[in-house]
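Hi Y.,

Following your request, here is the sequence exactly as I used it, all 267 residues.
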Amino acid sequence: MTAANFPFDLYITKPKEYLLGRQTVVAEELARFLEDEGLVFTTDTQVAAEILAEIAGRTCYMSFGKGRKSSREYLENILTSKHGSVLEHAVWCLLITGVSRALTHELVRHRAGFGYSQLSQRYVDESDARYVIPPLYQEDAALRQKWHETIEYIRQAYIELAEAITEYVERKHPGLEAREQRKWARQAARSILPNACETKIFVTGNSRSWRHFMELRGSIHADTEIRLLAVEVCRVLKKESPNIFHDVEVVEERDGLPAVRVIHSKV
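Below is the corresponding structure, written out as tokens. Let me know if you'd prefer a different format.
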């Protein structure tokens, strides 16, 4: 099979991120708290996560109405003093697609401050699964051709195995519900699927954890695929919260690829 004959719509070169969840401030309850405590609090940001992080920080010292006036100024002090626990109150939910199982094996190692829900290969038929082309293979046509051939071989093997296992399970366990038979077949057939198989994962994380993820995985030393994801996450979250992430930057590294640089490291 030549490169021209490959179904390229089944092959992915970059991830997609969907920002599905952000916080809101319950204004009535904030007003009730301020009234009960005889406090005054105003802010110049409309970003709920930034407001909540500032309220959390000011609660520690009951410094409402005192000191730093702007949200940027207040959160900058949080970053420089590394009072990172305050940032744990700011949360975003991202649905990430177009990434490989190899990437998510690394992503889910970030446990503190994150929650994950990932596509199940036991329940989802992967006969028409898409595959993520590692960046290195994207640089060379001959390497990419060889990679494609290998993936197509595995794809066909998965389909044949799934069909054979389904027939076997039907014969051996005729009383099983069809749904259970399919699950048994898929969970056995998935054993040959490669790490390049595309997956979808819903990720909820607080801003401290997202910063940690971007700092580690956006580095030049990280695996290239997850590094490029960290770059895209950085762009999404900087737009969402310019004050919390103002010191997190996308830069060009010496290898010609973008990376993430964090000025206030390990907050």
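The longest helix spans residues 141-172.

Thanks again,
Q.
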